[in-house]
Amino acid sequence: MTPRAPKNPKTPTIKPGTRVAVLGAGSWGTTFAKILADGGADVVLWARRPELAREIQEAKRNSDYLPGINLPISLRATSRLDLALAGAEQVFVSVPSQSLRENLITAEPHIGANAIIVSLMKGVERSTGLRMSEVIEQVLPISTDRIAAISGPNLALEIAKEQPTAAVVSSTSLETAQAVALLARNGYFRTFVNTDVIGTEFGGVLKNLIAVAIGIVDGVGYGENTKASIITRGLVEMTDFAVAYGAHPETLSGLAGLGDLIATCQSPLSRNNTAGRLLGQGYSQADVVKQMQQTTEGLASVSPILELAKAKGVEMPIVEQVRQVLAGTLNPRDIAPHLTTDSDEPQGERTLDDAQAHGSAAVWGSVKRAFDQLRHGGRGPLGD
């Protein structure tokens, strides 16, 4: 069962103008800097390229990644890490997952001793299989109670256009999650909290892989039945994997799991969906990587996730077929008929054994509670 907050938790208060830094000026990093600035924080955005930092600072635009979006007047930008991090009470990191370690090593001397570090990334480190919060904990001299992760249905351009959405902030420390959530919210962006960091991070990683599969069948030309089947079975794979690594099943039916899965699978704004669609149309993985303007985390995460699944004895047939398409050993048209198994023997809909079957009821009970909460104006206990 997902850990719940005490009835009367000590909720931290955040003073207006709290100094924060956002590292990474791609579409999501820039959008999140906008979210924070619109919520009243004093935000400095770090861009690796000086010319991009200059455009954001002077024109309040990021034409490379958010064309047509006006950024807040108060938002500042720099290409100097030391200036971006000076005095920052919270540091939000939005760099490609495979470059996180080297970026943290460079940033570490400039990060405040008591700063909270927040991951905005949805990937695992290819060489180690570590989640982003684990890489942060390994590289920085910091305890887990000062690390948080944000996930959910977060298509950057929609949020930059101020279309209403929600996300979940997760930390092993409820107080830290609340402190981040208080800053990362405004009139169009709502944040919930939980303490299931494993489930929250893996939800953000795993939905990318299912979105690639959806893109593949979309590129092939299959219709809604195929896509609905893959989304549903994909959620089972996501839940089984995350639970095997210690996550709570309810988290995978929340914003970081089901919510993010729906948004990423159905939207042409999703880089993972787009990459999959190109694969389905016959492009090779190398050609797809060349065509994509930004990092597609799903492509980088397939192999390490399958290695982690193998270590726990978790079967992930959809993700395995994505790997085969990427390797060129499976025709994209053949991905849909093999949704669960190559065996002709009828299979149970849930892949968990009977001893774990109660988790399934918990998942769908959680879905019902989520819809009930939405029906009553979003009121309910802490958590997503």
From TrEMBL:
Binding site for sn-glycerol 3-phosphate: K122, G152, K207, D260, S270, R271, N272
Name this protein carries in UniProt: Glycerol-3-phosphate dehydrogenase [NAD(P)+]
Region ranges (Disordered): 333-359
Family: Belongs to the NAD-dependent glycerol-3-phosphate dehydrogenase family.
GO molecular-function terms, A-Z: glycerol-3-phosphate dehydrogenase (NAD+) activity; glycerol-3-phosphate dehydrogenase (NADP+) activity; NAD binding
Binding site for substrate: K122, R271, N272
Annotated keywords: Cytoplasm, Lipid biosynthesis, Lipid metabolism, NAD, NADP, Nucleotide-binding, Oxidoreductase, Phospholipid biosynthesis, Phospholipid metabolism
PROSITE patterns associated with the record: NAD_G3PDH
Protein's UniProt keywords contain Ribosomal protein: no
GO CC field: cytosol
Record carries keyword Lipoprotein: no
Domain named Glycerol-3-phosphate dehydrogenase NAD-dependent C-terminal: residues: 196-335
